[in-house]
Amino acid sequence: MITPLYANHPNPDNVDWKYSSKEEYLAVEKTLTDDVVFFEPFLVEDFFPKEMFDELVEILTSYKLDNVDFSHQMNKWEEGVQIPQKFIDYAVEKVKVLVGVEDVEFGYHMYAHHQITSEGRVPRLPLHIDHAPGPYMVDLHIGGNRDWGFVAGNTNFITKPNQAIICQPQFDYHYRPSWSNDDPAEYYQALFFHLINKNHWCVPNESPTQSRPKEINDRFKFGKLFRESEEFNNFAMQRRYMFDKLYLDEHAKIGLPPIPWSEIPTAADADIHQRKGVSPLSDLDKDK
Ligand SMILES: [Fe+2]
């Protein structure tokens, strides 16, 4: 797997700097990669002890979907539904051990329920690299009644409940194969822990917990809005421009599930972003 970093580019002297200058690109890349440990995505069995996992499932699945934010980008109910701190602490400590890095902190978590909606919206996850904070992520399978692969880098992971994929969504290309079923009763649930490092770009310049070099802090305005800055956007576009073809060439050789090119969110989906009050199609059927 080629991690999309300039140092890994096979032809670094002939890069077309179409969206960003080389100097600006490397400066932003450095803010994303400093202190980060890189590894191939991997699967973990029994992420939580059984009693903890059962308790977690109970909490997450007790939320009524109508009260959970629905994302029009990925057609899934997705919200940081409240969970006790012990689950977060356990996940952070476990990832430190699994990855072999001490500098891991909690960023945020998201519970996701995937199912066809009453409006016929079908779950999807197009090929991308995250703009969301995430040098490390735990993708924990919570439940459901079907498989749904998660391709991270060069591996298609098919998981069972309480198995987790540990990956680096800021650096690993990832997508899910097409949902490819119109059965409204099918669903798939996951919980994501997005973990950061102490000098991650989402930590504001003025935060006492960060220790970035002064020249880096003087150059960029860090914090949640950093990803909306021109520098970050130029970097993100340049990165896809430099590495998409390399990823697709590798992808074609390995025989992974097809990339769902036709399942890209529209501009209108991006505008709506998230809303509440969406119901699954099968719930409506039950009420009839
Ligand atoms: Fe992602």
Helices and strands in order, then pairings?
Elements: H1 22-33, E1 42-44, H2 50-61, E2 70-71, E3 76-79, H3 85-99, E4 105-115, E5 125-128, E6 136-144, E7 150-152, E8 155-157, E9 164-167, E10 174-176, E11 187-196, H4 214-219, H5 230-254, H6 267-272, E12 274-275, H7 281-287
Antiparallel strand pairs: 1-9, 2-3, 2-12, 3-4, 4-11, 5-10, 6-9, 6-11, 7-8, 7-10
Helix pairs in contact: 1-5
This protein binds fe (ii) ion (FE2).
Could you walk me through the main structural features you see in this protein, from its secondary elements to its overall organization?
The chain is of the alpha+beta class and 288 residues long. The protein has a single domain (6-287), classed as Sandwich (Jelly Rolls), CATH 2.60.120. The protein is built from seven helices and twelve strands. The protein has helices at 22-33, 50-61, 85-99, 214-219, 230-254, 267-272, 281-287; strands spanning 42-44, 70-71, 76-79, 105-115, 125-128, 136-144, 150-152, 155-157, 164-167, 174-176, 187-196, 274-275. The strands form two sheets. An eight-stranded antiparallel sheet has the order 1-9-6-11-4-3-2-12. Strands 5-10-7-8 form a four-stranded antiparallel sheet, with no helix packed on it. Strand 2 and strand 3 form a beta hairpin. Helix 1 packs across helix 5 (230-254). The radius of gyration is 19 Å and the shape is globular. It starts with 21 loop residues before the first helix and ends with a helix. The model is unreliable at 284-288 (pLDDT under 50). The chain binds fe (ii) ion.
